[in-house]
Design a protein that fits this description.
The chain is an alpha/beta fold. The chain contains 12 helices and 8 strands. An 8-stranded parallel beta barrel has the order 1-2-3-4-5-6-7-8, surrounded by 6 helices. It binds phosphoenolpyruvate. Phosphoenolpyruvate (PEP) binds near residues 174, 234 and 237.
């Protein structure tokens, strides 16, 4: 049985002071046993150090929202996997659709970061997902399969087991319009079957596949009850302690 991983993607929200408030709020709200659930908070870079200090001694783990694939050097504005590791990050979100769309990140570019994160011992949460136009053209399966293959190029089976894939249909992100549990499950199953073909059934069985896209306290339970949905990548609803805690609660068996 796979654990559920609930990760909060704060995006470009919360300065250091607001970070303190939110983490303290989460500490109060998470007054229940997490059992099968891993909780990851992914604040902006400027809040990582504050967050890591505040989550010490709690079950919450730290993630970043991006990184670059080089170790160091003349890459103004970038941070490396080693820097994330040194600050205490155990996870990093890679290839979010906002980075693909606004910053033109490609599967090839994301793949370089995935390999670097794994080499540094950081678990990459790698996002894939189709646009509305692609769904309407009935090419969701092709798009998602090609993204999964692209971001995992030259990643070994044992490393793939450490990767988390987040299926995030672009039309569901920040729109309030979530995929139905059936729509999401269909794509999660497709991803698992693809991993089985590429890496074998044991790797596929262990792979954590999160759903992301307008996950809220009132739809989390139905989504997370699907057999191939192993957690959620949460945007808007992770910015308030109560709603993030309610989603976490919905993942507990
Ligand atoms: C996200 O940013 O990854 C996301 C899924 O956002 P939201 O939950 O707001 O749709």
């Amino acid at each position: 049985m796979r654990n559920k991983v609930i990760a909060g993607n704060w995006k470009m929200n919360k300065d250091v002071h607001q970070t303190e408030d939110l983490i303290n709020g989460l500490k109060n709200a998470l007054d229940f046993e997490l059992k099968n659930v891993t909780v990851v908070v992914c604040p902006p870079f400027t809040s990582l150090e504050t967050a890591v200090r505040l989550i010490k001694g709690t079950p919450m783990l730290l993630g970043a929202q991006n990184m670059y694939f080089e170790d160091e050097g003349a890459f103004t504005g970038e941070v490396s996997a080693k820097m994330l590791q040194a600050v205490g990050c155990q996870y990093v979100i890679l290839g979010h659709s906002e980075r693909r769309q606004l910053f033109r990140e490609t599967d090839d570019f994301i793949n370089k970061k995935v390999k670097k994160a794994l080499a540094a011992g950081i678990i990459p949460i790698v996002c894939v997902g189709e646009t509305l136009e692609e769904r309407e053209k009935n090419i969701t399966h092709q798009i998602v399969s090609s993204q999964v293959k692209g971001v995992l190029k030259d990643v070994s089976a044992s490393d793939t087991e450490r990767v988390i894939i987040a299926y995030e249909p672009v039309w569901a992100i920040g729109t309030g319009r979530n995929a139905t549990p059936q729509q999401a499950e269909e794509v999660h199953l497709l991803i698992r079957e693809l991993i089985s073909v590429l890496y074998g059934p044991a790797t596929a069985e262990r792979l954590i596949i999160q759903y992301g896209g307008s996950v809220k306290p009132d739809n989390a339970g139905d989504l997370l009850a699907q057999p191939d949905i192993d957690g959620a990548l949460v945007g808007g609803a992770c910015l308030k302690a109560d709603s993030f805690a309610a989603i976490i609660k919905a993942a507990i068996l």
